[in-house]
Write a structure and sequence with these properties.
Elements lengths: L1 H19 L8 H4 L4 H4 L2 H6 L9 H5 L14 E5 L15 H6 L1 H6 L4 E4 L26 H13 L3 E6 L9 H12 L19 E2 L6 E4 L4 E4 L14 H17 L3 E4 L10 H18 L4 E4 L5 H8 L5 E2 L10 H6 L6 H17 L27 H11 L5 E4 L47 H4 L6 H14 L1 H5 L1 E4 L8 E7 L6 E6 L5 E4 L5 H4 L6 H4 E8 L6 E3 L2 E4 L3 E7 L4
Parallel strand pairs: 1-2, 1-10, 2-3, 3-7, 7-8, 8-9
Antiparallel strand pairs: 4-6, 5-6, 11-12, 12-13, 13-18, 14-17, 15-18, 16-17
Helix pairs in contact: 10-11, 11-12, 12-14, 15-17
The protein binds calcium ion.
């Protein structure tokens, strides 16, 4: 039921937009995603419902004819779903796979074309980052059939599905560890273990020595490597037997139709041995591609740019771009004024240089927050929306496969203990809303800063509307995700970041972002020429203001070669006449 209500809100928004903003007939399907047949019959209902004043926002009119460029590659916009907390389909308070299926309209309407689901394998924890069985679905989340349904429904919409693959460690309840543990418990004191009697001994790192990062195997005089937690024994990823298991796991899920894998904790794979980690990542990516040539991998390496660059030498497609993320990352430091706006471009250039030199085919994986980080709405207490909006646009205007953590599109709050970072998706204020999850055990009670999805759907100035528009622009101009970055120093300063996305196949873009509250005015004539190596004479004619993104009600203008950018707004130019 609720899906239809949301769709009605979308149609209502569209109807009002057409009244207030559109002077000519236009198609509305791309603006709203409201082409779904369930919606049209409800238009009379929409007209009669209560409505707040609707703001005129230039971008919703100016960008209305933009259409998605269909691309079948790894340059995606991916939605990260913490499965436990997203959408509950059966009333037990726990998010599940059928719940996700029921929200695919919502996800597709926002423009996402890939999903990363946190682990779905059986596990006794709510987060499931400790796997009991790599070949099954946790019953709390659903069945294998549900997972297959999710894959099919996503693929029918052109949405790819990435499985979270936790290979650094298993659960101590995993049958592999249980077998090894049982063997060691029965081993007579003083005897040497024999892997020919129990092959699973080789699956983990057992030792008679106590050392840092090792936990005691209670009831024996043995220890085992467990870097994160005693109930998460580290796998021995140097073992050929373990690698054989991993090949089988990849083949099983790729056979189901999974499109790729998000790899947990890759810097821990083989502890304190970066070269061995690169070798293991190379094994892993090659194993995946030998089964399915376009199998995609993105790795979690929570570390600095140079270490990430070293890991790219493995040939892995993507590694999360941690230096740009979080409350103390590059984006946050720029948007809060610690760094200059122009440093955004410098940071992208440094990443591009470092990563491309290690792997020319790398696909950057920018993100702003994830399930291990405090949510971005808590970063700027005084912000009423524009700062959070621009920070996310900075992430979504980076090249590669850009990831957004569920709930960030409505500015959900959540910080402190991990459970708070994984709060229930805030669908509505209705206490009887059947989709709402209960949230992780031990989560604190705290109020949200911004309204629910249901409320933001009706607001042209909401974070949700902003996300939809930013992603739509990203999906319209392939160079945003696929081009290479060139700085435009003549337009960049403390407040404004300007850069070209060079993309010979899809067309170059000039992107100008005002990352401050004050209006910025830029003389564009000739401004691009220095960076572009082109005579200034043709520049002005070559620039077409192709898309605008406003966080407020003031328009962006481009007249007689002068660009006026209100605070926290973005202009996207095509450079049609410039090669
Ligand atoms: Ca459920």
């Amino acid at each position: 039921m609720k899906i239809i209500n949301r769709a009605v809100n979308v149609i209502l928004l569209c109807t009002i937009l057409c009244i207030t903003g559109c002077s000519q007939s236009q198609k509305t399907d791309q603006t709203t995603g409201g082409e779904k047949p369930a919606v049209s019959s409800d238009s009379s209902n929409a007209a009669g419902s209560e409505e707040p004043a609707v703001s005129y926002v230039q971008m919703l009119d100016y960008n209305k004819d933009l259409t998605r460029a269909q691309k079948d590659d790894n340059y995606r916009t991916t939605y990260e779903i913490f499965v436990y907390s997203f959408c509950d389909s059966d009333g037990d308070g726990i998010g599940d796979l059928q719940g996700i299926v029921s929200e695919l309209d919502y996800i597709e309407d926002l423009g996402f074309d890939a999903l990363w689901l946190t682990p779905v394998h059986p596990s006794s924890t709510y987060h499931k980052y400790d796997v009991d069985d790599y070949y099954a679905i946790d019953p709390a989340f659903g069945t294998m059939e549900d997972y297959e349904t999710l894959l099919k429904e996503c693929h029918d919409r052109g949405i790819r599905v990435y499985m979270d693959l936790v290979l650094n460690h298993t659960s101590d309840d995993n049958a592999w560890f249980a077998a090894a543990s049982e063997y060691l418990h029965k081993l007579p004191s003083g005897s040497e273990p024999d892997t020919s009697d129990c092959k699973y001994l080789d699956y983990y790192n057992f030792s008679r020595e106590s050392s840092d990062g090792y936990a005691p195997l209670l009831g024996t005089d043995w220890y085992y490597e467990a870097r994160f937690w005693s109930e998460m024994p580290d796998l021995n990823l140097s073992s050929e037997a373990v690698r054989g298991e991993i090949r089988d796991i990849l083949a099983f899920w790729l056979g189901k139709g999974v499109d790729g894998f998000r790899l947990d904790a890759v810097t821990y794979y083989i502890y304190a041995d970066p070269d061995a980690n690169v070798e293991f990542l190379r094994f892993l990516t090659e194993a995946g591609r030998s089964i399915r040539p376009d199998c995609y991998f993105v790795g979690e390496a929570w570390t600095d740019r140079n270490t990430i660059a070293q890991l790219y030498a493995s040939g892995i497609d993507s590694l999360f771009d941690f230096p740009f993320s979080g409350n103390e990352g590059f984006i946050a430091n720029i948007i809060n004024g610690t760094y200059k706006a122009s440093d955004y471009v410098k940071g992208m250039l440094l990443a591009q240089e470092a990563y491309s030199s290690a792997n020319p085919d790398y696909v950057d994986a920018p993100f702003y927050t994830n399930h291990d980080m405090g949510r971005s709405a808590g970063y700027y207490a005084a912000d009423e929306g524009p700062v959070t909006k621009m920070a996310y646009a900075m992430s979504l205007f980076m090249t590669g496969n850009s990831f957004v953590y569920y709930g960030e599109e409505i500015g959900m709050k959540g910080a402190g203990k991990d459970e708070n970072k994984r709060a229930p998706m805030y669908w509505s204020d209705d206490p009887d809303d059947p989709d709402m999850c209960a949230g992780p055990p031990d989560m604190d009670e705290f109020p949200m800063k911004f309204p629910s999805v249901a409320e933001q759907m009706k607001d042209n100035l909401s974070l949700l509307t902003w996300f939809r528009e930013v992603i739509r622009v990203r999906n319209t101009f392939p160079a945003i995700a696929r081009g290479t970055t060139e700085g435009v120093d003549s337009l960049s300063d403390d407040n404004v970041a300007a850069f070209i996305r060079r993309d010979p196949e899809n067309g170059d873009l000039l992107i100008v972002m005002n990352l401050r509250a004050d209006t910025a005015v830029k003389e564009m004539t000739g401004a691009v020429s220095a960076a572009d190596g082109v005579d200034s004479a043709g520049i002005d004619r070559g620039l077409t203001l192709a898309a605008v993104l406003n966080t407020g009600e003031e328009d962006i203008t481009y007249e007689q070669g002068v660009l006026t950018l209100p605070g926290y707004s973005i202009a996207v130019f095509t450079l049609d006449n410039i090669q």
